Amino acid sequence: MTTAEHAAAVRSPRRERTRERLLDAALDVFAEVGMQATSIEAVCEAAGFTRGAFYSNFASKEELFLALMQRDAERQLGTLEEVVETIDADSLTTPEGFRAALGTVMSAVRPDGGARRQWCLVAAEFELLALREPDVATLYLTEHRRIRAEVGAVLDRILASLGLRLVIDTPTAVDLLLSAEDAASRAALLDDRSGDRAAPPDRRLEALVDLLLAPPEPRPAT
Predict the structure, then answer these.
(1) What would the mean pLDDT of 72-99 be, rounded to a whole number?
(2) 90 lies in a domain?
(3) Residue 99 and which of 6, 18, 93, 196 are 20 to 30 A apart at CA?
């Protein structure tokens, strides 16, 4: 068990609530004024805590953001698995059924407009900071790779349960899907300010999923 995992395991309910309030406050403030312009004091004030409460949970703003990344990934993966359990595998044998199921899954895991905009702004700024600061880049890439590995494991498990398979290796598929989702989120935010677009960004993501999944195997007649 790593130090971080041990800390999570022994975290009391009260400390967990404090941590969640700090994360919620940080997301709001980061999205409003930017991560670099946000002080630790501003996060504490928004959450209603002291600096001591902050440093008992996080060593820095960067560590705080990495925790936001992990929380967002865990929530989406949990939602994805819950939604997939409601899908009848037999319905995936037709193009219409497959597309309907795909739409259900994507709608469930995607945040609403306000939350989507908020997260897109914060994630883009942190990635830019990682491009500029080598120490931040190391932290960012380590967490990013860990999250992608978790996504890949969940994706493999879900596809197996539905009798589906990818036409390429899982790590490459995850890279393509997450990159496409990021691009779709940014495009959707920009498109809110203009009606000029060739195709809805979410439709492009659906088209990519169609390309990455092999056709369902015919089920034997009974």
Answers:
(1) 82
(2) yes
(3) 196
